[in-house]
Amino acid sequence: MSEKRTVTTRDIAEQLNLSVSTVGRALSQDPRISQETRARVEQKAGELGYVGNLAARLMRGAPSTVVGLMVPDVRNSFYSTAAHALTQSMGEGGYQVMLSQTDDDRDAELAQLRGLAAAQVAGVILVPSPNPRPEAVRLLRDLPNVQLLRHLDSIGHHWFGVDDRGVLREATQHLVDLGHRRIAFIGGQLGFSTSNDRLSGYRDALRGEVDESLVVHAPPSSVEEARRTVGKLLDRKDPPTALVTASVRTTEGVLQELTSRGVDVPTELSVVGFGDESGFSWWGPGLTTMALPVHEVATQCSVWLQRRIRSGGIEGPYGSSSHGYLVERGSTAAQ
Q: Which DSSP helix (H) or strand (E) runs through 125?
């Protein structure tokens, strides 16, 4: 069976009795072409199943409408929520989003960036790994880019994120106000800007009275490691009376382990989570947690990058930090 022939601008032009150059300009939204002609061309292109050749458009000097989005783990709802918001906002602005997963691996991150640079994307939104390769940093200098949620000075000073320190300060303070003093902290690996800030917020609330044996770290994307970590805390001779988590996937792992062990929350252990996933409200007594404006942050990031791409200029440093808020349910109680 013969392969279906690719539809070209010449096919559209012949059907509409127009020149190929007019069809090309109409499809690229050239203002020199009337709205009526553009509408006719777009309708015929849809009927024929025409798909534009991005490489050819770029060779003709047309601007790219593709934006790269690089995240560590698409399973993390933190990042999938951001990807959904970015896709919506970018689509409204006439851009398409190309999603890449890095697994927080600097070599995978570099490989993805090489591909995006070769594709001549209009810009890049990235959640950076802790220690990018020097070549990755150099590639980003030649692309309009903005960092999302995490921030590395070596990459640049354009960033949109959450007030991670404030979020963990408020979460821990809630437990302190309930009379807890033996409060465990399960955070991500140090080296990430987010992990460092969240640990600082926890320390702020305890005002120097921190039992370092209750401060533990786990890979932020590993549910199984979070389960093992909370298990070790519960098996201590002097277990904590309360626990605060510092990532969505860690929270999921903690809840799974507490359910598996049949821990009576909040009688045996008070828990404050991170993020407000759809299942957190009906888990056990309902999880008290810090809700985070990830959708809003991602949308703001998208609008800013679109403006930067269209302006073509180099803007000065810009950072935006949004606040989370405590959602009180049944997983915390007075000590």
A: strand 123-126
Please tell me the distance from the alpha carbon of residue 259 to that of residue 249, in angstroms, as a whole number: 15
Task: Report residue 4's pLDDT band, with 50, 70 and 90 as the boundaries.
Answer: low
Alpha helices in the chain (DSSP H): 9-16, 20-27, 35-48, 54-59, 77-92, 106-118, 134-141, 164-177, 193-206, 223-234, 248-261, 294-311
Collapsing DSSP states into helix, strand and coil, what is residue 183? Answer: strand
Instruction: Give all domains of the chain, ordered by start, each with its CATH number.
Output: 9-59 (1.10.260.40), 66-162+295-322 (3.40.50.2300), 164-293 (3.40.50.2300)
pLDDT score for 62: 54
3-state secondary structure of 186: strand
With tokens 């860690």, the residue in question is 250
Write down the residue that tokens 């407000």 correspond to. 276
**Mean pLDDT of the region 265-282:** 95
185 pLDDT higher than 70:
yes
- The answer to whether the beta carbons of residues 121 and 67 sit under 8 Å apart is yes
- The 10s digit of each residue's pLDDT in 64-98 is 789 999 999 988 888 999 999 999 999 999 899 99
Alpha carbons 247 and 213: distance in angstroms, whole number? 19
> In the Cβ-directed half-sphere of 286, how many Cα atoms lie within 13 Å?
6
Query: What residue has token string 């050819």?
Result: 56
